[in-house]
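Structure first, sequence second, as always.
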């Protein structure tokens, strides 16, 4: 465990020294690592830092407003409304890796625009210790959205939390008074809801995945899952009111895991499952059925694509 006050007292002047008089930029994902890196860097260099949050349209319900609120103390916060550009770029794309590529490339384009506009020569990143070990040992290919440093030309990269483990980053987040919703939030994949939609990403499917994921996060919080969410699988027949409908099949997934490399499907009680089912079908007129995913990882992955 780190002494958080001591860590902050050392990290802030170090960032100041590394950045000097230059301008810097950081991509905020809403995750705890980039949030802590941004808060430390902002304390060090103030408005020389532009924190950039790109709303891809594939975020969880209320996430953008949450970011706006949590980081309202950063005057230079830049929220890029890129929902239409991402969803248009994804039209017709069905292959999972192709989806990631399209999202990654669009993200870089958005980020480059802000870097150019703010004349930023330094990049701040929320890389943590396990990220460095994993990429050095190549244990798992880093499938975050981005690969930013390879594409955007920066004079230097600043990584204020590079020596911390995840639980230590969370402690620093609490010490920095970052809202608990950021410090304690479940991991969310870089490509967002796109990997929770089987096949083409459409605006309608994104809305279903977003609303259903919100219900699942709320209802299953008491089970303290590593991740719990909903995915949109395809269409099936149902009955709503007096009518037969052809509606979406939503899968509910809730897993326990230590690091995401393996995971166990959680055992939930029937009443909870029924409550989730009834809220999702009741609150979304286009959902015809809800299924619960009982598969561990392996053989399944946590996300659907
Ligand atoms: P899978 O689905 O591979 O997920 O079992 C393991 C963990 O990684 C997250 N995940 C991603 N994170 N970009 C990310 O930043 C991605 O493309 C991606 N795909 C999966 C997933 O949410 C889980 O925590």
């Amino acid at each position: 465990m780190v002494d958080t006050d001591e860590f902050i007292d050392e990290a802030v002047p170090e960032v100041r020294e590394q950045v000097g008089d230059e301008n810097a930029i950081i991509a905020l994902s809403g995750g705890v690592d980039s949030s802590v890196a941004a808060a430390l860097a902002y304390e060090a260099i103030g408005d020389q830092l532009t924190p950039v949050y790109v709303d891809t349209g594939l975020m969880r319900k209320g996430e953008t407003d949450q970011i706006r609120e949590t980081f309202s103390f950063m005057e230079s916060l830049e929220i890029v409304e890129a929902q239409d550009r991402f969803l248009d770029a994804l039209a017709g794309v069905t292959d999972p890796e192709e989806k990631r590529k399209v999202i990654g490339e669009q993200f870089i384009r958005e980020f480059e625009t802000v870097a150019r506009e703010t004349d930023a020569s330094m990049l701040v990143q929320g890389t943590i210790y396990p990220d460095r070990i994993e990429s050095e040992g190549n244990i798992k290919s880093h499938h975050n959205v981005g690969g930013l440093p390879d594409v955007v030309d920066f004079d230097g990269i600043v990584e204020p939390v590079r020596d911390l483990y995840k639980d230590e980053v969370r402690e620093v987040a609490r010490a920095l008074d970052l809202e608990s919703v950021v410090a304690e939030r479940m991991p969310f994949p870089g490509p967002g809801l796109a990997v929770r939609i089987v096949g083409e990403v459409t605006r309608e499917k994104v809305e279903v995945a977003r609303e259903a994921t919100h219900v699942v996060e709320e209802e299953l919080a008491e089970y303290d899952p590593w991740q719990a969410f909903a995915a949109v699988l395809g269409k099936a027949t149902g009955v709503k009111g007096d009518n037969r409908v052809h509606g979406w099949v939503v899968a509910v997934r809730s897993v326990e895991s230590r690091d995401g490399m393996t995971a166990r499907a959680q055992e939930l009680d029937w009443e909870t499952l029924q409550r989730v089912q009834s809220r999702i079908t009741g609150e979304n007129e286009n959902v015809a059925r809800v299924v619960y995913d009982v598969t561990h990882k392996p053989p399944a992955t946590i996300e659907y694509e």
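Margin note: The CA atoms of residues 144 and 222 lie 28 Å apart.
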